[in-house]
Amino acid sequence: MSETHFGFDAVDEQAKAGRVRGVFDSVARKYDVMNDLMSLGLHRAWKAYAVAVARIRAGDRVLDVAGGTGDLARAFASRVGAGGLVVLSDINESMLRQGRDRLLDDGLIVPLLLCDAEMLPFAGATFDLVSVAFGLRNMTHKEKALAEMARVLKPGGRLLVLEFSKVAAPFSKAYDWYSFNVLPRIGRWVAGDAASYRYLAESIRVHPDQETLKSMMKTAGFGHVDVHNLSAGVVALHVGIKC
Ligand SMILES: C[S@@+](CC[C@H](N)C(=O)[O-])C[C@H]1O[C@@H](n2cnc3c(N)ncnc32)[C@H](O)[C@@H]1O
Long-range contacts of range 204-208, CB-CB < 8 Å, 24 or more positions apart? Predict the structure, then answer.
């Protein structure tokens, strides 16, 4: 049996997805308010930047992987127009339910799909754009998920990976202090769950850094990959072109 990371714990590969499911089942109802509190609203700017870089055109077909409560899907849906398509997918039913309700409240009907990013139920070359925001970190076999995202993209299609990354050295001590002392406390007060937010901080530390993820994307079939550091590398947007 192979082992993988669940935060700082080494766990059996078979166990990771279940532990991740437990985290998102626990936080789903408070997920959006926690995002605003923890990032002081910055997650909105990171996502807005990703949407701007996506340069969606009317008629595009877009798949948002690990889309959770649907922030990116909502932004894409208003850009693809009546002739386009946005699919919001996630492995977690509690997160997708929150996403569905929020989209309906905004008057948007977006197809939802409960699926594992490591086995996408689409034919090859289906989408113009695939996005994954703050989701890749939680996947057991990241190479497999990236290869799946490459497979379902049309040639010339783009993958956007928005994810926590390696912060610039001058900020790392303050960032560690915030992550390991403040985040779990906010998690306990607001969501009644410190452990899930400790997992968040730990999972960021064991996630591939900017250069490593870039080379993983190249191996997965993205001939060209650009990296955009945001907030001094707290987050990075990787943009891969399938070619
Ligand atoms: C931190 S949330 C991000 C949600 C949303 N993309 C956003 O940016 O707000 C991570 C999401 O990844 C999903 N996820 C984790 N592993 C997954 C997998 N193997 N396949 C699909 N989704 C997965 C979780 O269920 C969760 O909804």
Answer: 204/137, 204/164, 204/179, 205/8, 206/5, 206/7, 206/8, 207/136, 207/137, 207/163, 207/164, 207/165, 208/142
